[in-house]
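re: that chain from earlier
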Amino acid sequence: MTRIRRIHHIALVVRSIDAALPLYRDLLGLPLETVMAIPSDHVRIAFLGVGESKVELVEPTDATTGVARFLEKQGEGFHHVCYEVPDITEELTRLGIEGLELIDSAPRRGAEGPVAFVHPRSGHGVLIELIEAPGGPAWRALGYPVADAASGRRSGRRVAQASRPTSRKSG
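^ sequence. v structure.
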């Protein structure tokens, strides 16, 4: 059984989204979907579409955060890969049983849905993010609006702020 549905996005750490957009949006032609601040994580992010996936640009807004330390140590470039799964809680349980080191043992709010991270020590040096497919079981539990299959209407309260990890431990 395929547990991963697709690559949701790859994340690139940049010093400045405004400086990076001319390359990704203008020269490479990736359509800009959104730019948003994530105050709780002291980052600003931008999503650009590419096929069924996205490129996420991550700009630290506070020099004391893990993302800022990562940027200073590693420089601009690849930060993590995000895989979409049908049921994030089920997947976290399975991966934990299999012995992977989870940064998040339960899903939390992310910019585009419930997310959780697997430590790079368990990902052969790669930080892995999981995101639950739209409307999955964790969406309602975390307060995301979900479509009611019978009426097509969205229900649930609106989530005002996303949460993402700000540190990447080296391993």
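The chain has a mean pLDDT of 88.
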